[in-house]
From TrEMBL:
<dbReference type="InterPro" id="IPR005814">
    <property type="entry name" value="Aminotrans_3"/>
</dbReference>
<keyword id="KW-0732">Signal</keyword>
<comment type="similarity">
    <text>Belongs to the class-III pyridoxal-phosphate-dependent aminotransferase family. HemL subfamily.</text>
</comment>
<comment type="pathway">
    <text>Porphyrin-containing compound metabolism; protoporphyrin-IX biosynthesis; 5-aminolevulinate from L-glutamyl-tRNA(Glu): step 2/2.</text>
</comment>
<keyword id="KW-0663">Pyridoxal phosphate</keyword>
<dbReference type="InterPro" id="IPR015421">
    <property type="entry name" value="PyrdxlP-dep_Trfase_major"/>
</dbReference>
<dbReference type="InterPro" id="IPR015424">
    <property type="entry name" value="PyrdxlP-dep_Trfase"/>
</dbReference>
<dbReference type="GO" id="GO:0030170">
    <property type="term" value="F:pyridoxal phosphate binding"/>
</dbReference>
<dbReference type="InterPro" id="IPR004639">
    <property type="entry name" value="4pyrrol_synth_GluAld_NH2Trfase"/>
</dbReference>
<dbReference type="Pfam" id="PF00202">
    <property type="entry name" value="Aminotran_3"/>
</dbReference>
<protein>
    <recommendedName>
        <fullName>glutamate-1-semialdehyde 2,1-aminomutase</fullName>
        <ecNumber>5.4.3.8</ecNumber>
    </recommendedName>
</protein>
<dbReference type="GO" id="GO:0042286">
    <property type="term" value="F:glutamate-1-semialdehyde 2,1-aminomutase activity"/>
</dbReference>
<keyword id="KW-0627">Porphyrin biosynthesis</keyword>
<dbReference type="InterPro" id="IPR049704">
    <property type="entry name" value="Aminotrans_3_PPA_site"/>
</dbReference>
<keyword id="KW-0413">Isomerase</keyword>
<dbReference type="GO" id="GO:0006779">
    <property type="term" value="P:porphyrin-containing compound biosynthetic process"/>
</dbReference>
<dbReference type="InterPro" id="IPR015422">
    <property type="entry name" value="PyrdxlP-dep_Trfase_small"/>
</dbReference>
Length: 448
């Protein structure tokens, strides 16, 4: 089964997988003015809300901020079809249901799904990760990006024998207590929990700084001499200058530099953002793409640090299903295809084509916009750019975004339902998909 369009969202929602595949063959509406109906999707989502908190298994899938509901994306049950730029929030870099990945997973599955014992497939994926990611000499697999980040922070603290960590406003590192700190405005704010249920004691040692503001980080180091275990950041919003500055500060202060590459790893380049920007951290967290659509996370780094992790060292971290053969296989097969000649050039070419087209269309309609891309990742904000940190991003027009999102959806374009989330390009997207997206955007922007 070779899918022609990246819009065939196999497996993206419970309502979707439970239904027949009849909807997959439904063509995109032939005119851009015709909009979709979501009757069955709404029924299914109404039921989901009685079964699961908010009707979803992960909060950002909910459509509270833009109106509508994720059931709308049960494109099969209503027969609607979308061009998908969410790509299961990043992992679907080859598009959904890639033949080679599925075939390999099926073969592995015939032998069993998990043994809780070391398997050769772990070594194979580990070698691929180590070969690709400059900072990684040794790796530990987990089941999610959140778990990887939990292990990583414990490791940083164990290695340095310090407790405080610096994170940045607007950076997400999974849902572990210590990371659920966004902090308000201000150059550097002592972390306060973002979510009820997070004890203040859990975030006391989390210090929050403004992104792309090196002075803010310097000031925190000054105020907390020899107390900072690590600086943790998502590297893609940065520029090389900022990343290099942070690298120097960490080295000078004996802190571990962590790039959280759960989103950017194998997405902006085969070696992640660290390869793209040429700045090497001490520890890297990964997830999404390395699992090829199955649950995998990982943290890795210098051998000297990683050998602190049990059973090699004293820092405990574990997982019943970590490194299971199915997930390892999906990752291995996905990465094999990503090593083919020209993959990342092609992803970036298409991301650029889309962002340039959307920005030009917005300008034509007099809408303020700021867009950017790196490899197979892109985004835009409805605000005069450039957008270089979270505070600037919050100035974007949320109301315009909500209308835009809904109108694009109703015409067959599935964008992330949050203005702060990136878009993801896959190898399955065609130029025709992108041209169509831009044509639909032109129609929608005329109404905003
Ligand atoms: C940068 C980053 N870190 C960590 C996570 C958490 O990963 P997961 O959702 O697999 O737990 C995410 C998820 O979006 C992420 O983008």
């Amino acid at each position: 089964m070779k899918l022609a369009l990246a819009s065939l969202l196999i497996g993206s929602a419970a309502a979707f997988t439970a239904s027949s595949s009849a909807g997959y063959s439904t063509a995109l509406k032939s005119t851009v003015t015709e909009t979709y109906s979501f009757t069955k999707s709404e029924e299914i989502f109404a039921e989901a809300q009685t079964l699961m908190p908010g009707g979803v298994s992960s909060p950002v899938r909910a459509f509270k901020s833009v109106g509508g509901n994720p059931g709308a994306y049960a494109w099969d049950v209503d027969g609607n079809k979308y061009i998908d730029y969410v790509g299961t929030w990043g992992p679907a870099i080859l598009g959904h249901a890639d033949d080679d990945v599925l075939d390999a997973v099926k073969k592995t599955m015939d032998k069993g799904t998990s043994f809780g014992a070391p398997c050769a497939l772990e070594n194979e994926l580990a070698k691929a990760v180590i070969d690709a990611v400059p900072s990684v000499e040794m790796v530990r697999f987990t089941n999610s990006g959140t778990e990887a980040c939990m292990g990583m922070i414990r490791l940083c603290r164990a290695y340095t024998n310090r407790e405080k960590v610096i994170k940045f406003e607007g950076c997400y590192h999974g849902h572990a207590d210590a990371f659920l700190v966004q902090a308000g405005s201000g150059v550097a704010t002592l972390g306060l929990p973002d979510s009820p249920g997070v004890p203040s004691s859990a975030t006391k040692a989390t210090l929050c700084a403004e992104y792309n503001n090196l002075d803010a980080v310097k000031a925190i180091f000054e105020d907390n001499k020899e107390e900072i275990a690590a600086v943790i950041l998502e590297p893609v919003v940065g520029n090389s200058e900022f990343l290099e500055g942070i690298r120097e500060l960490c080295t000078a202060n004996g802190a571990v530099l962590v790039f959280d590459e759960v989103m950017t790893g194998f997405r902006v380049s085969y070696g992640g953002a660290q390869k793209y920007f040429g700045v090497t951290p001490d520890i890297t967290t990964m997830g999404k793409v390395i699992g090829g659509g199955l649950p995998v996370g990982a943290y890795g780094g210098k051998k000297e640090i990683m050998e602190m992790v049990a059973p090699a060292g004293p820092m405990y971290q574990a997982g019943t299903l970590s490194g299971n053969p199915l997930a390892m296989t999906a990752g291995i097969e996905t990465m094999k295809k990503l090593r083919e000649e020209g993959v990342y050039e092609e992803l970036e070419r298409k991301s650029k084509m889309l962002v340039d087209g959307i920005v030009a269309t917005a300008e034509k309609h007099g809408l303020p916009i700021s867009g950017d891309y790196a490899g197979g990742m892109f985004g835009w904000y409805f605000v005069e750019g450039p957008v270089k940190n979270f505070q600037q991003a919050t100035k974007a027009n949320a109301e315009t975004f909500g209308k835009w999102h809904r109108a694009m959806l109703e015409r067959g374009v599935y964008l992330a339902p949050s203005m702060y989330e990136a878009g993801f390009m896959s190898m399955a997207h065609t130029d025709a998909d992108i041209e169509r997206t831009i044509a639909i955007a032109d129609e929608v922007m005329a109404t905003l």
